[in-house]
Amino acid sequence: MEPMTSNRTVSALFNNRTEATQAVADLVAAGISRSNIRISPETDSVRTDERTPYDTTRDEKGFWESLADLFMPEDDRHTYAEAMHRGNVMVSVFVTDAEADKAEDILERQGTVNVDESVESWRKEGWTGYAAPSEGSGAMRGGEKSTQVVPEVEERLRVGKRQVSAGRVKVRSYVIEKPVSETVNLRSETVQVERRPVDRGVEATDQAFKDRTIEAQATSEEAVVSKEARVTGEVLIRKQGTDRTEAIEDTVRSTKVEVEDDTASEKDRRP
Q1: End-to-end Cα separation, the chain, in angstroms
Q2: 160-176 pLDDT per residue, tens
Q3: pLDDT digits 0-9 by tens, 109-151
Q4: In this structure, which long-range contacts are made by residues 251-257, counting pairs with CB atoms below 8 Å and at least 24 apart in sequence?
Q5: Going from the N-terminus, what domains does the chain have, and what CATH number goes with each?
Q6: What's the pTM?
Q7: Residues of the chain with pLDDT under 50
Q8: Which pLDDT belongs to residue 137?
């Protein structure tokens, strides 16, 4: 995560998450770090047909609390919380002064919601909005005590972790064919019949005039091919895990309250 070096916050409302997501993509394409962009709420909430104003005292869906670290005026905080309650999506961009105009132009191109028109429509439906304290409500009268609270706000860094791909090893087994040759000696036997003239006496006449048959078989050898599969090698696949410690550096914001007390000098000037 990149350190957040912004000193301005630019916020805009969109009718739906699709428009808000496209605005975020355009901001990143323009060179603004994704870690300096926030979508609120993070997920879509279930909307109903009721137009009951958002109750900041109960803060059922956390809209009011999610805006605490933006340090916006109370009336703006009420307005944006009500907008998210009604289904709008807010994009907040933490930028430097030099990036502010560029961020505003990009958000405007994506069709931001006109907040003033929305507020006017809500008021017609009964929304009262932020009730600012009346002037003089903090002044002390005889015997009365008045207390106002000025909060000191501090951001805290929360670091999680997620699993990302670091590449992969792919092992594929496939079949290849290659021509091979072997030599083998083959034998063939043939039968030859030869007739030749002879003139000699017969010793056993009774045997000479008998029928008989003689067979001679011609033979020939042919090659017989068989194949045998044998394992000639192995590929082992192992996964080995290692742990590492990584230092995460970022910036967090906080507010400080300075007190200037000139009541002592006022008392000294009294007669």
Answers
A1: 62
A2: 777 777 778 888 888 88
A3: 877 888 888 888 888 877 777 665 554 444 444 444 445 566 7
A4: 251/3, 251/4, 251/5, 252/154, 252/155, 252/156, 252/157, 253/69, 253/71, 253/153, 253/154, 253/155, 254/152, 254/153, 254/154, 254/155, 255/71, 255/151, 255/152, 255/153, 255/154, 256/152, 257/150, 257/152
A5: 1-126 (3.30.70)
A6: 0.42
A7: 1-5, 46, 48-50, 135-146
A8: 44
